Amino acid sequence: MSRDWKPSATLQASFALHGLAALGVVVQPGLWPLSLGGVAANHLALTVAGLLPRTRLLGPNLTRLSQACMSRREIALTLDDGPDPEVTPLVLDMLDTAQVKATFFCIGWRARLYPDICRQIVARGHRIENHGDAHSWAFSTWGPRRIKADISAAQATLSDITGQSPLFFRPTAGLRNPFLEPVLCELGLHLATWTRRGFDTREGRVDVVLQRLKKTLTAGDILLMHDGNSARTAEGNPVILSVLPALFETFSSLHLVPVSLAHALYENAIAPTSCR
Which of 57, 70, 131, 194 is the most buried (most CB within 10 A)? Predict the structure, then answer.
């Protein structure tokens, strides 16, 4: 179901600046260098904002669960870039053993290659969300039509395979541009990034990844890990497989309850359009 798009304060200011710049050139043509410089600076600022995964400058962005979730000691473990035929089944076994529920942000083209793994994710009580179809590093440079086509393709794939429509979208590395939020509103999706991450796609030292994830860990956090594109330990093993057991022990010691992002939404515990 689509939702209404309301430009963020940053975008409203940007629209106003463009209008003033155009008016200034009409009223006083000699001011065009100043007007052009102001517009260029504004575009640069918007580009920088798109490089900050956790910012709300370009629109709503879920980076933490709500106060209601926090009161129940809930957190969210999210896993990106799968499904991976080697790693994801082993991660699922670990989640089952620890009785932990997770959210998998899956890539459309990978889901089409390994649909049975996606079905297993859902069958074991986890949720699959939208991580784009191409998972392109150029995503933040795309226009609205291409962004919509990519997200829609992944949405159709994941919905067809699992029978569940994703509720959340996460762009590649969290990078985006001002065109994303209007597209998400049209498609009825919500942007979700994270509170903390282990950088486990490029860090193979288990202790380093674990420390990044558990330092000041608290209720309401959204954790980012990767079952796809996982870095390797010195022994050649996917680092996530060595980190998860210790991370689950931390959850237990802190009395934290892992839930899916969708669970939080269904329980009316978060307001997806008003994120902190």
Answer: 131
Q: Which residue do the tokens 């996917």 mark?
A: 238
Q: Give the model confidence (pLDDT) of 93-129 as tens digits.
A: 999 999 999 999 999 999 999 999 999 999 999 999 9
Under the banding of pLDDT at 50, 70 and 90, the label for residue 49 is confident
Whole-Å CA distances, 218 to 69, 72, 171, 244: 11, 11, 25, 17
With a CB cutoff of 8 Å and minimum separation 6, the contacts of 25 are 31, 32, 35
**Helices 239-253 and 206-214, interaxial angle, to 10°?**
40
Amino acid at 88: T
Helix and strand numbers (H, E) in the chain are: 11, 8
Q: How far apart are CA 106 and CA 133, in angstroms?
A: 9
Rg (CA), the chain: 20
Residue from 179, 168, 108 nearest 139 by CA: 179
Is residue 207 a contact partner of residue 232, using CB atoms and an 8 Å limit? no
Residue 83: asked if its preceding bond is cis (omega within 30°), the reply is yes
Residues 6+ apart with CB under 8 A from 249: none
- Cα gap 11→5, rounded to integer Å: 12
Q: What is the DSSP letter of 59?
A: S
Neighbouring C-beta atoms of residue 149, cutoff 10 Å: 13
Give 202's contacts (C-beta < 8 A, 6+ positions apart). 231
Check if the beta carbon of residue 240 is closer than 8 Å to that of residue 91.
yes
Residue whose token pair is 């009409």: 26
Beta bridge partners of 127: 103
